[in-house]
Amino acid sequence: MGTALVYHEDMTATRLLWDDPECEIECPERLVAALDGLRQQGLEQRCLRLSAYKASEEELGLVHSQEYVALVRKTQTLDQGELQALSKQFDAVYFHPSTFHCARLAVGAALQLVDAVLTGTVQNGLALVRPPGHHSQRAAANGFCVFNNVAIAAKHAKQKYGLNRILIVDWDVHHGQGTQYIFSDDPSVLYFSWHRYEHGCFWPFLQESDADAVGQGQGRGFTVNLPWNQVGMGNADYLAAFLNVLLPLAFEVTVCALESIQRVRAAQAPHWTSLQQDRLALCPTPPVHTAVALTVPAATLALPPGVLHQEGSPLREETKAWVRPHESLFQDKALAALEKILYLLDGILDGQVNSGLAAMPALAAAATLGVIIQRCLSLGAQRLFCVALGQLDRPLDLADDGRILWLNITGEEAATQSMFHITTPLPGTTGGFLSCILGLVLPLAYGFQPDMVLVSLGPAHGLQDPHAALLTAMLRGPAGGRILALVEEDSIPHLVRTLARVLHGEAPPNLGPFLMASPKDIQALMYLKGKLEPQWKLLQVAAPLPGPCSLVA
Q1: pTM as predicted
Q2: Nearest 10 degrees: CA dihedral of 265, 270, 273, 276?
Q3: Could you tell me where the DSSP H helices lie in 269-331?
Q4: Residue from 8, 134, 135, 195 carrying the catalytic annotation
Q5: Has 421 been annotated as catalytic?
């Protein structure tokens, strides 16, 4: 599966026909500029292009009243004076003879993307739409928005596919009060918005845009507003909010919702060819998206299509030079494994491979990891984030000079030898593991901004396959996808397949039943955060721990 791009050039037809400084920024160029940006970056051709269709009036009725839909339909026949008079009945809105056509296309694009994702045609996608929708309410246009595209898409997903947990993330300078109103009492939709607020002095000037608006009735707790009361919020501010508010909520929803999605896919598979296939062949960049260097035949692993299995390498003499200080690597088997790993590593560092998975001999795991780190530094890596799980100590010959951030997740006590040498116990529950990732691992990773990430599952690492996959998937972001995952050569094929899939862009498997973090895990996390906060700014916001969740079969 790949990524869809949904668009229709007709959505540029509507434009302001009279002078109105408040509305003039909503122009066709907004949409054209976005598409041009995708083309300039070479992203459009990597997507599956889908042309938007016009949503039916029945589909519009999932959210909007019949009277309101009829009112917007009538704009097709109004002259300029009538359009201007109608527009003045709403806040920051203008109508055009093409508004009804364009707005139906915008909704249709959102619905088409939902269908493409939930039937397995693609894994994810982007709908470029105009007019926007998140201010629109059941019977009113508002803030350039005519029909609430995302709200209709969520209702469509619930009605057609039976989804019962949907997360809407509203990222805009303005609060999407229309979407909030529509789902304020609906516990099946979690609405999250971060927006400029300035203590209510920024449009739309609503008290319900503040943090204490949490929903109504059964929907209490399912409206989450993060209002910015200062201007000029930067990357660090959004990362802090992402790691400490949005992701904990999203993981709780995901853990609960995955069963529903899996049931939908299983039920629909006999009727949709796309659900019976793993991926669509799209143009990757770099030349190889994911490669593996393993000691078992590729045929025994059932790797995802498109994953390159490296069979050999031309680094024999160079590899021998690297192993001289390490007696455990003298054996032919260990030398052959290291040779493959270094060849894969070179491909990642020179931009030919995006991510990789490699097997290392169990008895030489520590020595292998030490050679890999030194090789990275010798090839110009300035910052290397190494996450070592299990019995893997930091190599003694590594300088503590800020180029290597070493995080060891073990069964031992929490400790900080320096701001770049950290040890944390392996949490015993799903909640504790998520808290560790969101409250420690990712803030360190994004704060360090590594050139490359190494994830090494060493002896007695103790991670279940879904947890190892989630950790690996989450660490693809900080280094732009440049990540090398290392496993012991006797690891079971299922773990290897799972890691290969998440490195190739697939979603991690279900984590299983959600259990709260233990007091011991919370204490260890808080201890480390207290020690490290002065040096790592992204740790300076206390992360809320994931809340209770119903069990997932």
Answers
A1: 0.74
A2: 60
A3: 316-323
A4: 135
A5: no
